[in-house]
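Hello,

Our lab assistant flagged a job as stuck in the queue for most of the afternoon. It eventually completed. Since we weren't sure the result was trustworthy after the delay, we are filing this so someone can double-check. Below is the sequence as submitted and the structure that was eventually returned. Let us know if re-running is recommended.
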Amino acid sequence: MLEAFSLGAGLSWASGLRLYLTVLVVGVLARLNIVHLPDSLTALSSGWVIGAAAVLAVVEFLADRVPAFDTLWDAIHTFIRIPAGALLAAGALGHADPALMTLAALAGGTLAGSAHLTKAGTRALINLSPEPLSNWIASSTEDVLVCIGLALALFVPVLFLAFLFGFLLFVGWALPRLWRGVQGGFRGMASHMGSRLGSLGGKRD
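-- returned structure --
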């Protein structure tokens, strides 16, 4: 159960950051018989699934490094990453009791949502800065975090769960601050644009 719990938590958390990279990494490891997945997740090792995940992972790799477009990408994937995290968490339990699988899906969706909202909020705040290199640094950091997190979830469950506990503490501290920062940034941009439009209107008069 510890391994199943770690697998479900790892898949859902990583999906909130990089869904396609998560499916690709786990699918390849399962196809190479490095990890064993429950029957409910064996579809991840399908050649078709791995191929599609590889293409989408490359697309996301590029899209996530374009300022402003990465925020649009995150907004769209709010409706993809969170449900996918819930499904993967439930699938990690195999053919467990339906009530337990439902709880796993709810927990997985929550984990995926926490990771996704932290990522999206951070990137929205970064995009308020005109410095483009920060997008590449943030995106590369997320790639590395996903790979490390999946490795721990698959091979060192206890260490991953300790890491996940620390992450949840960080999310509880960071999300309110990210939200206030993004709100303040957008209010500042709106005020700046309003003053610019006002000055342009005054010049025309």
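-- support follow-up --
The delay was a queue issue, not a problem with the job. The result is valid. The radius of gyration is 20 Å. Residues 2-204 form one domain.
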